[in-house]
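Query form — protein SCP domain-containing protein

QUESTION: What is the three-dimensional structure of this chain?
INPUT:
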Amino acid sequence: MKKIISTMLAVCFMMISLTALAGDITVLLDGKQLRFDQNPIIENDRTLVPVRKIFEELGADVQWREKDAVVTAKKDDMSIRLQINSNWMLQNGELIYLDAAPKIVGDRTLVPLRAISESFGAAVTWEASSQTVYVTTAGNVPNAPDSETPSTPDTPENTPGDTPSSEENDFEQQVLDLVNQERQKAGLAPLSWNSDLANVARAHSKDMSVRNFMFHTNPDGLSPFDRIKNAGISYRSAAENIAAGQATPQSVMQGWMNSAGHKANILNPDLKEIGVGYFNSTTGYKHYWTQVFIAQ
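ANSWER: The structure tokens for SCP domain-containing protein are given below.
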């Protein structure tokens, strides 16, 4: 299952810029604010930070091999190896797929904070309102504001979804029809509508609007796969497309079909079921869209 999830994470896309400067992001390690000589960046929903600083703060020995652009780090019985511009991390001999590859910015090597921290046993949480990443090592009490709240906070992701309006419902059905038209053109079988998946998709579209974010992973750290699992839906493989700002089913489908990653999900012959969630908001991008696909 780990390999399936890692593979599917590689094909989840969103219709906004995948790379952004994140100079206003704060990183707290066990309550201590880390200072970097190179601003973190956000790529594919992941925060990347200077490698040496985070490794040393986590107590790991780090080495840089310039000839092949490889970073290695060791701590106790954990060893990880990363290569610049490669989405694969070698962790104690096991290949792990990374949503964002290490890269060089300026003269600093940046690595994905969550993957690195969790490899060394730390927990990572994200607070969207303050643009803060909380890294908590083993044996330390989390310092994030939600550390004393229940594990399932009252958010649109884990509360029953509102009944969609007639317009929203109609738009969702139009997207289903358009998806199956594209699949028919490609000689593929149509996708079946899954009402439970639609509820998951609607909740995520609404959540992106209410909490003002535009990521596959929500501010609570839940991925599309977590949301599907939490809804009690079993699957063999899964994928998700999201978008915002497109006012009609036709325009959002055009955008998805003009994007190689989104198109690959829509025309994936292995996927069999779909749920579509559209949320019409008065704020932000105003129109929020989510497609969730599964194969049983």
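ADDITIONAL NOTE: The CA atoms of residues 48 and 113 lie 5 Å apart.
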